[in-house]
Design brief:
By secondary structure, the protein is of the alpha+beta class. 18% of the residues lie in helices and 28% in strands. Strands 1, 2, 3, 4, 5, 6, 9, 10, 11 and 12 form a 10-stranded mixed β-sheet that branches. Strands 7-8 form a two-stranded antiparallel sheet. A hairpin with a 3-residue loop joins strand 9 and strand 10.
Length: 246
């Protein structure tokens, strides 16, 4: 079955919200200018999604390997308003993610300054002298044998902020090949009486286990509050389900 690159969550004359599949860029990549991009795919379908709108305006980003919600403006006025709202931290962003390990606290905060492109691997690094302010609040939603399901609420919006903060705290995100081991999750390694074929087994999840779950803010035209939620991607949902069963 062909994977759908995005599903529509909400659309009006000012903005749209979509649920992006993992593995898809949201903007041009300096290393691969021909790589498929979410904004170009949406632009092609814009006449059907929002017939009165001609252009898509980006107001924020999520990583290529992150699944979940992304918001776009559809006119210059909405673009200015939403850009300002993101810059002023008036839009609340919530992520769901799986980490290696069990956190002793139900809630914790990582407040460590970050510097993007800080090493030979182009990772975001902790830099207390030259880094920019970065704050992320975490809540433990569920704990399993060797994994935990967390909710993250980043206050700031630095590149790879959640990934870098969790790696620094000793809890790398599952399947994060840049800040962790990148090892896929196999049911055969979790279930004691697993009876499958190790030669044909497919991982429960093999990509970064990070999902942009919710955006909350104020509509740029009506000034009414909005709250959009993106359903878990299939691989993320099935992994959580299997961990709950175990």
């Amino acid at each position: 079955m062909k994977k759908t690159p995005f599903t529509l969550i909400y659309a009006d004359e000012d903005m749209i919200a979509v649920n992006k599949a993992a593995g898809l860029l949201v903007a041009a990549d300096r290393w691969d200018i021909e790589a498929p991009r979410l904004d170009l795919l949406i632009q092609k379908e814009l006449p059907q999604i929002a017939p009165l709108c001609q252009k898509l305006y980006a107001v924020h980003r999520i990583d290529k390997d992150t699944s979940g919600i992304l918001l776009y403006a559809l006119n210059a006025e909405a673009h200015r308003a939403l850009n300002t709202a993101f810059q002023e931290r008036e839009i609340k962003k919530t992520y769901r993610l799986l980490i290696h390990g069990r956190v002793p606290e139900e809630q914790f905060t990582v407040d460590l300054p970050l510097r993007a492109d800080g090493d030979a691997l182009h990772r975001t690094v902790i830099d207390k002298r030259r880094g920019k302010e970065a704050i992320t609040h975490f809540t433990v939603l569920e704990t399993f044998r060797q994994f935990s399901l967390l909710e993250a609420r980043p206050v700031t919006g630095r590149t790879h902020q959640i990934r870098a903060h969790l790696a620094a705290a000793g809890y790398p995100i599952v399947c994060d090949s840049l800040y962790g081991s990148g090892k896929p999750v196999l049911l055969s390694e979790l279930k004691q009486r697993w009876r499958g074929d190790v030669y044909t087994e497919q991982p429960l999840i093999r990509r970064l286990a990070l999902h942009a779950y919710q955006l909350e803010g104020i509509h740029p035209r009506t000034s009414e509050p909005f709250s959009f939620t993106a359903e878990y991607a299939k691989d993320f949902k099935s992994t959580v389900h299997q961990l709950q069963k175990l």
